[in-house]
């Protein structure tokens, strides 16, 4: 069965800051496939950005060496716990298309919900391993699904999950995912729609860094596949 991976990211920073404390990184796996890493460091601004870059860099190095996702997440926790003595935390998500096992692997230390779309059914997956960096024996939550057309994962940082909370009106991710037949949208359109809803919930003035990552598997491909990656990165003063 031939599949095509669609990956999209939409992110913005907290209003009043010049830099997002959320970091998203992409790496091709040594055994085939790819992994996307999302780190949401405690706080916002430059200090949070530097921390999230450190944690993401540690995960990427280990994945590049062939370390399994769960072990990489545990090592990132140990690194942060040792570095900051349990005083600073971060949320960590690793979403991998692993061609060695032919599975979609989601490894999480996050309190934000994850949305899974499978066979047109939308499910909120709340199971996590808790934030990294706080407690010595923290472990990640690891879940696997067999690769199949239409399988979609939506991962968000807590700025999206908690958008509108100050007004008592947080966004409903499951409802957003069901709207307008999401399987007819591109991954980028779906990511943009979720981020737009979060921004609207915060009345255009985000109270935290916001990141949406969408990974989708589509049926089909070509004999000589061409991989493409595009990026839009507005530069601010």
Protein described:
The structure is a single chain. The strands form two sheets. A five-stranded antiparallel β-sheet has the order 1-10-9-6-7. Strands 2-3-4-5-8 form a five-stranded antiparallel β-sheet, with helices on one face. It has 237 residues and is α+β, with helices and mostly antiparallel strands. The chain contains five helices and ten strands. The mean pLDDT is 91.
In short:
Helix content is 25%, strand content 31%. By secondary structure, it is an alpha+beta fold.
Q: How large is the share of residues in beta strands? A: 25-35%
Discrete helix count: 5
- Unreliable segments (pLDDT under 50, ≥5 consecutive)? none
Number of strand elements:
10
Topology of helices and strands:
Elements: E1 3-12, E2 22-28, E3 33-41, H1 46-64, H2 69-84, E4 90-98, E5 103-109, E6 114-118, E7 121-125, E8 141-146, E9 152-156, H3 158-161, H4 173-178, H5 187-201, E10 210-219
Task: List descriptors.
alpha+beta; 5-stranded antiparallel β-sheet; 237 residues; 5 helices; globular; 25% helix
